[in-house]
Amino acid sequence: MGLKIMVMTCFFGIKADSFRVGRSVLPKFFLEDVGSEMFEVLNRGGKKVGVTNLPRIMVESFVKEYLEIDFVVGRELKVFCGYHIGLMDERKTMHALEQVQEGKGSSDMIGITSFNKILDHDELFSNCKDMYVVSEGDKRSWQALPRELYPKPLIFHDGRLALRPTLIESLAMLMWLPYAIILSIFRISLALSLPYNISTPLLIFTGIRFTTSIPKTKTSHKAKPNGHLYVCNHRTLLDPLYISFALQKNLIAVTYSLSRMSEILAPIKTVRLTRNRDHDAEMMQQLLKQGDLVVCPEGTTCREPYLLRFSPLFSEMCDEITPVAMNSHVSMFHGTTAGGLKCLDPVFFLMNPAPVYTVQLLDQLVAPSCTQINNNVDVGEKEGSRFDVANDVQTQIGNAVGFECTKLTRKDKYLILAGNEGIVSTRKSGKS
Fold it and tell me: What is the mean pLDDT of the chain?
């Protein structure tokens, strides 16, 4: 009955062809629940069939992609006019038996189940040569599967919850929620209304943990006609703001997509890029003449310890580049989203009791100047020089924070999590 209530609550009125939680949110929690001992046993098998009491669409993507199970048998959800009505079909066991009888199993089948599932799957397990029954005590003694042993690395996931939704942790979160909203509004008010030298210690007093690392060797910019370029990895929308806190000065941030509300509330100047390479390069050159500039070349955030591919646009800005390694940690709510309201990202991040932010300013790089690049005759060498600089910056930042560098892009993330390319249209400009 509890399962039926959960399914009704979660699925009633949800459009059937737009359900992506099973692929974008749940694998994070499912992976944290995989026992290392059982995973080793599972890998010894040939063809694998997974049977679950949960709706099939909730777990199918996870068990196929992360546990490498060939067939998934679960309860089907009833659909009316393209929408889930929150009711499950009870013919799960017969469907599993049909798959086995059609030759999708084998003659030497081994069944693994728990004590309270034997009766539910009695007809299915009667076809097994051997059967192993796991007790709750066995499960409690299992070790969690280490991240390095995941069959597929978990790089992208969505959802606001950063904690496992167990009973105790869920109750603690619900009790904290009213205070969290008030605390988040108070923190935002401090950041918007006070100068950096006053707001920073007050924000730390509210529970925010903020650490900064600045290299001992600094390069003077007094004789430079343009501002300085800071290139950082992207953890949350607050990255440029925390760099401003670290440097105690106003910066200009360029973004690929930012909600209007975030632009209005931002205490520093923000400029939206158009994704037109020539136009964006010219605009960034003009902004550098106005002051120091912050750019996040990943184009989107990544929660896990991975770096997405860096766009090489910043390497053409003719200035010395300071890589900035950013890291953050939350305990209850994620301050990023792919499918939700982006304007609430800073609010959710600041709702955490003690969010952690680390800013490491690395040694400066001298990128090939525009004159040097333009003097190259070979177009391939021009492109290679740009990408070499971008890859070098990505590698330095990855080494500083201990993240793995990837070739994945913003487009890859949004296709996986949201089913689109992550392009936000603006009515004002008519562009994306």
Answer: 83
